[in-house]
Amino acid sequence: MDSLTAELDAANRSACSVIETPFIDSYNTLRTHPESADETLSPSAVSCIPPQREMHEPISVRPTAPLRSRISMLYPSYASPQSMSMTARSRPIRVLIVDDHAVVRSGLATMLEFEDDLLLVGEAENGQEAVELCARLRPDVVLMDLVMPVMDGIKATRIIRERYPDTQVVVLTSYHDKQHVQQAMEAGAIAYLMKSVSADRLAEAVRAATEGKPSLSPEAAQVLIQAATLPQAPIQQLSVREREVLELMVKGYSNPEIADKLGVSRSTAKFHVSRILHKLNAKSRIEAVTTAMQHNLI
Q1: Which of 4, 86, 230, 275 stands the most exposed, by the fewest C-beta atoms within 10 Å?
Q2: Residue 2 domain flag
Q3: Do residues 178 and 194 share a domain?
Q4: CB neighbours (10 Å) of residue 110?
């Protein structure tokens, strides 16, 4: 089992132990000595008691909102600052999970439950189902496995990005060879992460994806850097405006953000980005940025 799934399972088990022991101890004391209620129950324990519940009734203990802060103290990966508030967005980020292994989908779904600004809207077992669900659900981000039956993740990524450009694809896989990394990025994925990634890093990548900011695992980054150092066709000279656009691409700006920053239309910004990719012999934004850094263009 990969470390992400193991971490999620450990968090679930610990949640019960963190929550249940002090609460049940206080509950048992209160049953035998009701006069000690004030000194027996802590504020956090009192907040867990369901209203209008008789003390002899069974108590269902689960990690509800008042207790999640205690869980996050032991598991910081579930308490990144962005997950505590949605001030930067008017609604949660809608996420679609795509993986042919049920245990992986379950683990990812559990992770999303601990992030207030991330909302699971659907699950798919293969690329074909992912494409169909994107048509109905229009998720903001798709967590995409690569090797699956019926339709692989690379083909699904290409179709999703062509049909639904507002939906970003974050690849989550066990493969980091050159072929998979390059094909996924060429298909339009904005991030490439390994399944060993931590929960907080994955959540950050999902948020970054909605802002048009790429994320790469060290393995994927190494592959792209090595590819950029291979002999290629000569790089064409960039114009002053294209260099300005390239600098913003390096900072992770999306096309709309580049347009706003430079005071041009979105179509103009998109045109400049396309020209930069062409001149740098790059098939993706990430490859263009890597090439620019390798050749000291910025």
Answers
A1: 230
A2: no
A3: yes
A4: 17
Q: Any idea which residue has 């012999």 for tokens? A: 281
Task: Specify whether 178 is located in the same domain as 42.
Answer: no
- The reply to whether 53 and 101 lie within a common domain is no
Q: Which domain holds residue 44?
A: 14-78
pLDDT in tens, 236-255: 788 889 989 998 988 888 88
Q: What is the C-alpha separation between 161 and 130, in angstroms, rounded?
A: 12
Q: Tell me, yes or no, whether 117 and 86 share the same domain.
A: yes
| Alpha-carbon gap, residue 225 to 244, rounded angstroms | 22
If asked whether residues 159 and 218 sit together in one domain, one would say yes
For residue 8, being part of any structural domain is answered with no
Identify the CATH number of the domain in which residue 138 sits. Answer: 3.40.50.2300
Pair (92, 214) in one structural domain: yes
pLDDT digits (tens, 9 = 90+) for 259-297: 999 999 999 999 999 889 888 888 888 888 888 877 777
Q: Is residue 250 part of a domain?
A: yes
Contact (Cβ atoms closer than 8 angstroms) between residue 95 and residue 140: yes
Whole-model pTM above 0.70? no
pLDDT tens per residue, range 156-210: 999 999 999 999 999 999 988 888 998 898 899 999 999 999 999 999 999 999 9
